[in-house]
Design brief:
With about 130 residues, the chain is an all-alpha fold. The protein contains 8 helices and no strands.
Length: about 130
């Protein structure tokens, strides 16, 4: 519990300094509307988050991978797999989710700022009814 307390505190300090990226607002919908724990909800978006940010600043993303000591593809695979979010969303729900979080300030904290269409595309890729 002590280690968890320190990790939680360090995470809070980091968020206070840097803010969060798009996994947080997109994940809020999964947490609030589908009961998915927020850490898992955020983690489900990490492949997309890192992939989009590589478009904005590949060198910065590589510096992150180097600092973590893992390959970018490994991180993009392991975090979403560990999140294990297995839900399906119809297009109406996706549109409602995007509408709820489209104006969040979190988006500007990233090297690549996603737009509403990209938000929709991300939800569909990850949770669309057509995905197996």
């Amino acid at each position: 519990r002590e280690a968890l307390l320190y990790a939680s505190c360090a995470g809070g300090i980091a968020i206070n300094k840097t803010g969060t990226g798009f996994p947080h607002p997109l994940g809020y919908n999964l947490t609030l509307m589908r009961g998915i724990p927020h850490g898992a909800a955020c983690g489900a978006f990490y492949r997309e988050y890192l992939t989009y940010n590589e478009k904005g600043d590949a060198k910065l993303c590589q510096a992150l991978y180097d600092a973590i000591g893992a390959d970018g593809e490994e991180i993009k695979t392991v975090i979403p797999e560990k999140s294990a979010v297995d839900i399906k969303l119809d297009d109406e729900t996706i549109a409602m989710f995007v509408n709820k979080v489209k104006g969040a300030g979190n988006y500007k904290n990233s090297p690549y700022v996603i737009n509403e269409q990209e938000m929709t595309d991300i939800y569909r890729r990850l949770f669309g009814e057509d995905n197996a």
